[in-house]
Design a protein that fits this description.
With 382 residues, the protein is α/β, with parallel strands linked by helices. Helix content is 40%, strand content 13%. α2 crosses α9, α3 runs parallel beside α9 and α10 runs parallel beside α12. Bound molecules: pyridoxal-5'-phosphate. Pyridoxal-5'-phosphate (PLP) binds next to loops.
């Protein structure tokens, strides 16, 4: 067998290497995984079971059931003031399928995509796989891990087609302020960029409100909102995501998906109709739990020598600065795992701007998080 040239040197990402290492170790406190520790609520599971008994066991409509797409529109209108019709929505197999389909639909070979560091690792792989060129835009903690408008302008060339934004951000947990988003929107309009806005953590904002990029003036036709129920409704295993955007783009993305997934699991879609319409209170309850956990972990981290941690803004990640320990992020993380059995992700796995940081997912109980902080404290005293 001879693998395709483009995959012959394929490597697992810095994040996957940690996941694989954990599988071989006992007694690990795992703060590396980006999924809520809460199970899917029982009534959501019941909605899927009921749909199965009612005969929804066949191929779904390619773009998604009309009631599911309507439920997505209602949710975004209610929570974020986004006006969209079901024609503008495509249901996908997880949030991760959305950027892939969009990049396939939008990129010609050599087109550039501006990717803000530190970034969710699969974006870069997807851009390359779709024939594009990722242009990594460095950011700093001082600027909230968001580019300044001047930096963004500088990164734009005649080949730039797309700006990819992710707020609240995985891995930094930072939220781009609305004013800065407005500046980016003005640049996108002036330089004719399309914006892929990954808003999968929209329900997890600890200060102020989420700004849906597509609601900014002039952005509805220039932006694709990427979302899903994995994080908001604790449905990672159901593999449900969606895209909301210009009808023409949604049509082409749907067409591409027909030769891949041929629609999204019918039962998942029916469960989502129920979840999106009935779980707003639960979203707030869980957000408050995450907020409490993140505050306590940040407080513990800020007492550790060589570590400083900004307060949580969004998602469920903390991204503490560990430069004061004298260790590189990779060294810190692997040594912490080997010596103290606490798993986190090195910031460098998310691009060069993440060097000097680690990503801590506060997706474990307060008790486990506290125990992990005890271990980290001991590790740093050694
Ligand atoms: C920023 C971001 N976008 C998309 C996804 C993909 O989510 P899903 O599990 O629904 O595919 C994740 C998952 O970690 C994420 O962090």
């Amino acid at each position: 067998m001879k693998l395709a040239e483009r995959y012959s040197k394929a490597q697992f990402s810095g994040m996957t290497k940690i996941f694989q290492a954990i599988e071989k170790l006992d007694n690990v406190l795992n703060l590396s995984i980006g999924e809520p520790d809460f199970d899917t609520e029982p009534d959501i599971i019941d909605a899927a079971a009921k749909a199965a008994r009612a005969g929804f066991t066949h191929y779904p409509p390619l773009q998604g059931f009309a009631d599911t797409r309507q439920a997505v529109c209602d949710y975004w209108k209610r929570h974020h003031g986004l006006d969209a019709s079901p024609d503008d929505v495509l249901m996908t197999a997880g949030g991760l399928q959305v950027p892939y389909l969009a990049l396939q639909a939008l990129l010609d070979p050599g087109d550039e995509v501006i990717l803000v560091e530190p970034y969710f690792t699969p974006y870069a792989t997807q851009i390359t796989a779709c024939g594009g060129v990722p242009v990594c835009l460095k950011t700093t903690e001082e600027n909230g891990f968001a580019p300044t408008s001047a930096d963004l302008e500088k990164a734009i060339t005649s080949r730039t087609k797309i700006l990819l934004l992710n707020s609240p951000c995985n891995p930094s947990g930072r939220v781009i302020p609305r004013k800065q988003m407005e500046e980016f929107a003005a640049i996108a309009a002036e330089r004719d960029l399309f914006v892929l806005s990954d808003e999968i953590y929209e329900s997890l904002i600890y200060k102020g409100r989420h700004t849906a990029f597509a609601t900014l003036p002039g952005m509805k036709e220039r932006a694709l909102t990427m979302g899903g129920l994995s994080k908001s409704h604790c449905m990672t295993g159901w593999r449900i995501g969606y895209a909301i955007g210009p009808t023409e783009l949604i049509r082409v993305m749907t067409q591409i998906s027909t030769s891949q997934t041929y629609g999204l699991n019918s039962l998942t879609q029916k469960a989502a109709v129920h979840a999106l319409a009935n779980h707003d209170t639960k979203l707030i309850e869980r957000k408050n739990i995450f907020a409490g956990r993140m505050d306590s972990v940040a407080e513990r981290l800020n007492k550790m020598k060589g570590v400083s941690c900004a307060p949580a803004e969004g998602a469920f990640y903390l991204f503490p600065n560990i430069r004061g320990t004298g260790l590189k992020s990779d060294e810190f993380v692997w040594s912490l795992l080997e010596k103290s059995r606490v798993a986190v992700i090195p910031g460098s796995a998310f691009g060069e701007s993440g060097e000097g940081y680690i990503r801590i997912a506060c997706t474990q109980s307060a008790e486990v998080l506290n125990q992990a902080m005890d271990r980290m404290e001991d590790f740093l005293k050694r």
